[in-house]
Design goal:
This protein is of the alpha/beta class. Helices cover 21% and strands 22% of the residues.
Length: 208
């Protein structure tokens, strides 16, 4: 379906970073395939924001921070259940950098997340405690941006959490599926799609 882009629209690009692309520490299958799609989308929007996973070494979401644990296990943290990940997107490392072919020049803002060592952060809007804000919502409201289009990595984690929070905060929200790829951990993609549909997130294949 064709979706006209308005002046009050934002393209929110989630975590298109080397560690989430093939060869990275937490690679999403076919993750680099989103880059040309996202670059084409960027040309359509007047307003673009990027997120960047930005962990300190030894982050509490890393399996290596919990002796005896393995990546992709789930443990209880003070803020709830947490999936443990391989060490990834460590501040200042090549893995944390944006994919080299991603067209970042027109981004008006970069939201770094996951930099607090004691709490993980999937959403562009809140840490995983669901209470600590990144400030993005206030930025968008002050700029008069009302509808959010999402693309990036991964559909079932950081894109999903960002879409859910966007709806919870009252923004019209559209997921561009051709611009996303998923991890799909134990059925997480189907669960994410169901939750987004229930929350009123619109899903489109592309804008054309």
């Amino acid at each position: 379906m064709t979706v006209p882009v308005r002046d009050d629209d934002l393209l929110l690009i989630i975590d298109v970073q080397n560690d989430f692309c093939p060869g990275g520490a937490l690679a999403v299958a076919d993750g680099d395939a989103v880059v040309p799609v996202v670059n084409r989308l960027i040309e359509r929007f007047d307003h673009v924001v990027l997120t960047q996973d930005w962990h300190p070494s030894g982050h509490s979401s890393f399996a290596t921070a919990h002796p005896g644990s393995a990546p992709f296990e789930t443990i209880g943290m003070a803020y709830g259940q947490q999936t443990l990940w391989p060490d990834h997107c460590i501040q200042g490392t090549p893995g944390a950098a944006f994919h080299p072919k991603l067209a970042t020049e027109r981004a008006e803002l970069v939201i770094r997340k996951g930099f607090r060592s004691a709490i993980d952060s999937y959403s562009a809007f809140y840490e995983n405690d669901r209470r600590t804000p990144t400030g993005l919502a206030g930025y968008l409201r002050e700029r008069g941006l009302r509808r959010i289009f999402l693309a990036g990595l991964a559909t079932d984690f950081c894109v999903h959490y960002s879409a859910m929070d966007a709806r919870r905060l009252g923004f019209d929200t559209v997921l561009i599926e051709d611009g996303c790829r998923a991890i799909d951990l134990a059925g997480s993609l189907d669960a994410a799609r169901a939750a987004m549909a229930e929350a009123g997130v619109q899903r489109v294949s592309d804008l054309d």
